[in-house]
Every structure is written in C-alpha cells, then in structure tokens.
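Onboarding guide, step 5: your first structure request.
Type a short instruction followed by the sequence, for example:

Predict the 3D structure of this protein.
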Amino acid sequence: MRGTQGWRGSGPQTAEEMIAEARKAFFVMFAFMVVLWVIQIANWAGHYHLDQEYGLIPKRVDRLPEIFTSPFLHFSWAHIEGNSGPLFVFGFLAAYRGVVRFLWLTLLVALTSGLTEWLFQGGDTLGVGASGLIFGYFGYVVLRGIFDRHLIDTLIGLVMAASFAYLVTIALPGTPGVSWLAHLGGLVGGVLGAWLLRDRRPKAPAGIPATVPVAGAATGAAAVPSAGGTVPAPAAGSDRQDLHKELGDLGLL
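The system replies with structure tokens like these:
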C-alpha cells in the first residue's frame, strides 16, 4: 500500500544462466527487504521523523527528489508488513531473468509512480510506501512473457494476473488514505517497462532463409525422427524453434 496522510536487453537463455540469474535476483530482493526494514526500525525509533523529511509532498519542487526516497519509507509496522510480501514476490519474478534489466525497470517505475503522485495528488498530503513499485513489478510480470514471447513467463503472468487481479482495484480512486495515483503510475511504468525492456531477437536478412545445421552438411533444415520417417525441425530464429529451445533448457522436452 502506498500511504498518504491528510533496455534494451536480453534475458538468460539457458537453464544454467536462468538459475544463476534467479539466484542473484533472490539475493537482490533479500537485500532490498533488509534495507527497507532497517530504515523502518530507524524511522520508528525516530518517531517517524524520516517520513516528514523524505516523504513525497506533491507540487513542491523542493520535494521532487523524494520520488526516489519515499518508496523506502512507511508510516507504520502494519504498512511495511502489508507491502513486504507482495514486494518480494513480484520483485523476484521481475528480476529472475536479468538483474540489470530489473534495476532499469525499478528506476522507470519509481519515476512514473512518483511523478504521477507529485503532479496530480493533492498538495496537502505526504506520500510514502513501496506499493508504487509493487504495482510496477506486477504490471511488468503480467505482460513480460507476451512481449518477450516466452512461454514460461506468459504462464507466470497469467497465474499472477488471476491471483492478484484485486490489486487493480486499489489503483482506482476511492480508498481512503491510499494514494491510488502512485499505484496507477507504478502500473503504467511496469507495462511500459515490459515493452521497452523486452528481448530484441535478431532477424535473418530478407531473402535469406534461416536454417538449422545438420551433421555432415554445411546448410539445410535438420530432420528429426517421427513415427512415419523424418520431419524437418523448425527453422532457426522461428517462434517454434525458440519455444522448443526454451522448453528444452527447462527440461520440459
């Protein structure tokens, strides 16, 4: 919950790379959560003075840099407890295919969420909380698989969309004490990030058919055995071959 008061890149392609990147993603999110809770302890010990100093106040130019500090702050223990679970889950799912890409996504979401709140929220409010990031990661996870054309990520996105569809309602106006604008801005940033940071796969030059190398032949389409003889393997660079490769890397073929 966001509270108020008054590259372009390519993810890992092999199973080993995915496991290594997932391990890094886990430790990145674990460290992120440790930082949040250490800040919360210091904030609580100081009677939440950090909220007043580094929370986001809309329409005040001198508080614009707080776009980047307010997601690390919370108003209470219940506030940070409510954010911690979804933040870790969606953050890990957003990061496991590439930590560097995840960091760019985080920067983008912080900007879209914070700027939306700073521009359109009432000027007499103070905004803190990591839920803008949560909504951004949610939007990214739901759509990443579609834009990247990754079967596993598409399935993960469908499961997350079905399981957490209620989150979208919190991005709508009407919940007292909740900055729905920060949620909406974060969601937009996540969707935008899924498009901007999607995998760019090289295309074969026009007029030159892509082929799969075969043992004993320089070029040509590979053949795979079937019940009735042989059938040609999917052409290199095709969506079908990409799907076969991804499933094979994950041990599903």
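Each response can be followed by summary notes, for example: The first strand starts at residue 3 and ends at 5.
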